[in-house]
User: Which sequence fits this backbone?
């Protein structure tokens, strides 16, 4: 099993450009998440999904959109990139269990917006 | 808003030393987790503590959940260079998880 994979690993954008980050998991997990990680701020939840076809806003959703058309994939879109979106983006997935809620993370995408 | 504060933010020690890092909140969590993250990789779960006062051991790592389920500590005995990394605590509530900013540990050989 590959676990959670993310594409691409690195990307440089100019302000105003758009892009989509792809996350895929092969563990049949119901829940998927997108986080951003900035120095000194830990992981902040952008959007999450509790199942195929459903998405919800997290802590910092502005400037991002998501889609979960297939259970195994969770896409994060930036319609008009801004320098403030320079960050490392992590995708994660988890089973339905509530108490344990172990999340499995991908290796991250390092995005720079110039 | 639920917040998790971790201390210290950065710790540099010699191989063989003991250390404790802390995770504190004013909120009660149904469970608290500790993750370790190495450079260029995503976090990996070390342990989940669920019951107030619970203590779990993972080889040289000892995790404790506060009685009131608002705080947790991680103690490492005889630290090794392989323990180097970013240690994140995370409070789970439902299917969302709140992460602390982390303690960056560097163990020198």
Assistant:
């Amino acid at each position: 099993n590959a676990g959670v994979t993310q594409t691409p690993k690195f990307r440089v954008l100019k302000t105003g450009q758009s892009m989509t980050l792809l996350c895929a998991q092969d563990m049949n997990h119901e829940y998927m998440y997108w986080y951003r990680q900035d120095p000194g701020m830990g992981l902040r939840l952008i959007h999450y999904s509790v199942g195929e076809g459903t998405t919800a806003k997290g802590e910092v959703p502005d400037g991002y959109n998501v889609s979960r058309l297939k259970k195994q994939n969770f896409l994060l879109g930036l319609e008009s990139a801004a320098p403030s979106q320079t960050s490392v983006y992590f995708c994660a997935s988890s089973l339905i269990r509530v108490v344990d809620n172990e999340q499995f993370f991908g290796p991250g995408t390092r995005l720079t917006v110039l | 808003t639920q917040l998790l504060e971790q201390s210290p933010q950065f710790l540099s020690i010699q191989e063989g030393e003991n250390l404790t890092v802390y995770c504190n909140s004013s909120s009660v969590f149904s469970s608290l987790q500790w993750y370790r993250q190495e450079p260029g990789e995503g976090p990996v779960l070390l342990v989940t503590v669920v019951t107030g006062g619970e203590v779990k051991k993972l080889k040289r790592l000892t995790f404790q959940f506060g009685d009131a389920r608002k705080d947790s500590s991680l103690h490492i005995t005889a630290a090794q260079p392989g323990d180097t990394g970013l240690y994140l605590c995370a409070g789970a509530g439902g299917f969302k998880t709140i992460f602390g900013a982390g303690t960056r540990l560097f163990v020198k050989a």
Remarks:
- Chain A has a mean pLDDT of 93.
- The longest strand of chain A covers residues 42-51.
- Chain A touches chain B through 25 residues (CB under 8 Å).
- Chain A is about 0% helix and 55% strand.
